[in-house]
Amino acid sequence: MAEKRATHWTAVLLIVLVVAYAGILLIAPITAIVQQAFVDGFQPMLDSITAPDAQEALRLTAIIALATAAINTVMGILVAWVLVRYRFPGRRFIDGLVDLPFVMSPVIVGYVVIVLFGREGWFAGLSIAFTPRAMLLVTVFVSLPFVVREVMPVLRAMPPEQEEAAYTLGASRLLTFRRIILPTIRPAVIYGLVLTLARALGEFGAAAVAGGGVQGYTENATIYIFRSIHDRNDTGAYSMAILLGVISVVVLLSMNILKQVQSRRSQ
Amino acid sequence: MQNAARLEQEAVNAPHPQLDLSGWGLRGTAIVYLLVMIALPVFVVFSSGLQAGLSGFWDNVSHPHAVSALRVTLVTAAIMTVINVVMGTLTAYVLVSYRFPGKNVLDALIDLPFAIPTLVTGIMLVLLYGPQTALAGFLQDRFDVRVLYARPGIVLALLFICYPFVIRAVQPVLVQLDERQPEAAYTLGASGWYTFRRIVFPAIRPAMLSGGMLGFARALGEFGAIVIVAGNIPLRTQTAPVYIYGKVEAGNMPAASAVSVVLLGVALIVTLGVDWVQRGRQHG
Q1: What CATH number should be reported for the domain holding residue A179?
Q2: How far apart are CA B217 and CA B275, in angstroms?
Q3: Which chain A residues are closer than 8 Å to B99 by Cβ?
Q4: What CA–CA distance (Å, rounded) separates B274 from A97?
Q5: Class level of CATH domain B53-283
Q6: ipTM of this complex prediction, to 2 decimal places
Q7: Domain range for A214
Q8: In chain B, what residues touch A4 (CB-CB under 8 Å)?
Q9: pTM, full prediction
Q10: Domains of chain B, residue spans
Q11: Which A residues in the span 179-218 are in contact with B, Cβ-Cβ below 8 Å?
Q12: Tens of pLDDT along A97-152?
């Protein structure tokens, strides 16, 4: 539809309604947390963020997010490629599986880890539950679909002839991937990677249940916030929440810039 | 034409003679990975939930606290979905149809809820509607409405988290919609409302439906924001994920598993519904 300048009174009414809704729903809460940052000044916030327990939580969040991004990028590309390039029995079922992490409650994801690896679990001997490994596992699970779903449409739109020609001419699978496939899917991979990072940085429910939230061992940044609320350490909770919020906004901005660069390149 | 394309696709998919082995290796790796990572957890939920037999499952799921938790989750998610579909469609329509100051800012803000950790969303709502704030006092005195530690808080948190779903589903369909169609109806004397109802609405209905349902499925499982704003009061504000969390922490796995079965079951059915709606759009 062509954009119209709003002149008719119904148009003005609709715009006001939509902007007011976004204002109440999104902008008011964001303003509230930004305002909180200025209430007591930055020093107390800086002190609580640099305290050892906060630093430890941040380090765990960073390590798990980076590891998750690495695993989901490699496996995501492989899964997307197999789902697009091959027909095999049960492909539709396998394809449908990919979206499930989006609708499975994080708490249930954590619960599954306890059932599988907990003290009386099916694989209790592996000692995974209540360790950072369990947190990595659930974080990989909840963000698994992003890279797959970003890469699949690009691969589907890519004519397979180039790939075939490279094979036939004797190029190895790896070389074909590096020279032919990767340059095409790179923007989609990066986009999926950024979404994965954002999701991994903010994971709470699954990580809290699977890791047990032991301070200094399995406490990530979000679990630190949760504990701070319970300990009535408001400054700690708010400063960490603000920090995570700022990181998310940076991630979002980089996503938007990426989109613009991509669309400019494709023009 | 379609046959030719399919033949070509088959030819491409035919195993390459030299690389057959590694092709199967890659396929096998991807399939086993997805089965272990995703199918296994789903299987675990259902098998552990039904381990004690149907009567054991029923005993756990019919406990008043479990019933109430499931009801709170379903009701708040449903209320959110209705508001989200109406306001999301309206937002997408306004963004596509009109030019106005601040439009680019609004368009950029829409994906923000995807990036912000939901626990942080909960904290933002506590800061805005918390008991000591002026806004909470005003709402309480004037309208006798409590937001925090009550159901309106849950609905607000879910609305924030699911804000992008309907907008991002409807927006591309509206952009694609042939602009001449509504223009023609309009010049022929149809009112704006009539044009919307007869031409725009049928075109965007599947997107509204699938966006709304995806948001609903997402809302069923929400934990981080709700555990902060709802206050975990059994029979009143305790949602199903918060109930499951409490039971797992207390080591009561049968109670946790029974509610998990219902929650995941509903989410799976909704997801299948979305798939069905989207397939219908492609063929119809």
Answers
A1: 1.10.3720.10
A2: 13
A3: 3-6
A4: 14
A5: mainly alpha
A6: 0.91
A7: 43-266
A8: 97-99
A9: 0.90
A10: 1-49, 53-283
A11: 195, 198, 201-205, 208-209
A12: 999 999 999 999 999 999 999 988 889 888 899 999 999 999 999 999 999 999 99
